[in-house]
Amino acid sequence: MATLTLGNWRATPIETGRIRLDGGSMFGSVPKAIWNKAHPADDRNRIQLAMRCLLLEGEGRRILIDDGAGDKMPAKLVDIYAIDHSDLALERSLAALGLGVGDITDVVLTHLHFDHAGGSTRLEGGTLVPRLPNAHYHVQRRNWDNAHHPNPRERASYMPENYDPLETAGRLRLWDGPQKPWPGIELFTADGHTRGQQLVRVEGGGSVLYFVADLIPTRSHVRIPFVMGYDVAAIETMAEKRALLERAVAERAWICLEHDPEIALARPVAQDDDFAWGESVPAGEPTTKAGS
Fold first, then answer.
1. How far apart are CA 103 and CA 98, in angstroms?
2. Which residues contact 101 (CB under 8 A, 6 or more apart)?
3. Which numeric CATH code is attached to 3-286?
4. What pLDDT score was predicted for residue 284?
5. Which of 57, 88, 174, 204 has the fewest CB atoms within 10 Å, counting from its CB?
6. Mean pLDDT value of segment 78-105
7. Which of 162, 174, 169 minimizes the C-alpha distance to 138?
């Protein structure tokens, strides 16, 4: 696992499993002839995606950003989405770092779609309970409200069993807008994908790291026109992406890619009126890297 050191923070990408989603939906108006080269589709037009999270350790906290799809989905949905934990799972990734789910103090959920928040709960004796039992779970109030009153396009992605038990257990914390909850950590919103999505910026020691969730889900989505068909507002996504990438390029920041199956971390660079990647760190890279 690659680890970045950013001042008092250690940031480690955490692999929680694999999922397959429809390639056309992942790339919207981009022709299949273009995206299929980098992300080959299977016989059901699905492409392989990671469900990568980020572990932040420092300032007396162990903070997990997103937690994957979890292991309680019905067999029908496991088949539809090709959920695969045979090689990668949250518990195994934490164990490789000498940690367990009980060591996590906080979970920041970028949004409540099932592939980002499904790992928040588990079944115990027929009852749904928090999967990370000692953590507080942090969600934007706007996304919480959106999840409970979803539009028809997003209804299938919001599953109350993934997050309502957190409120019942007294583990839910709702935030209203941008936050700076811990030293060096900034939360800001991006609404083009879903209303109330929150992204994470970590700064320390002169270095910066962003966790961008579904604003830039894979390495190919660094291109401004590459916008998911899942997004509720494509024009907003493009504007939000451009603003973030301009900031990240100026800061020489790293970006953690949640869904790319091959690349875990990469640095964006400007390319004419668009963007590309410079230095990158493959998924599963064992080398510990400095943030600078």
1. 10
2. 90, 91, 94, 131, 132, 133
3. 3.60.15.10
4. 78
5. 174
6. 97
7. 174
The answer to whether the pTM exceeds 0.85 is: yes
- CA angle at 199 for the pair 252 and 118, rounded to the nearest 5°: 130
Find, among 2, 5, 3, the residue nearest to 202 by Cα.
Answer: 5
d(CA 291, CA 276): 20
pLDDT digits (tens, 9 = 90+) for 166-213: 999 999 999 999 999 999 999 999 999 999 999 999 999 999 999 999
CA distance 23 to 44: 9
* Cβ proximity of 88 and 17 under 8 Å: yes
CB 184 within 8 A of CB 6: yes
At 46, which amino acid appears? R
Query: Starting at the edge strand that comes first in sequence, how are the strands of the sheet with 3-6 ordered?
Result: 172-175, 136-140, 106-108, 61-65, 46-58, 9-22, 3-6, 288-290
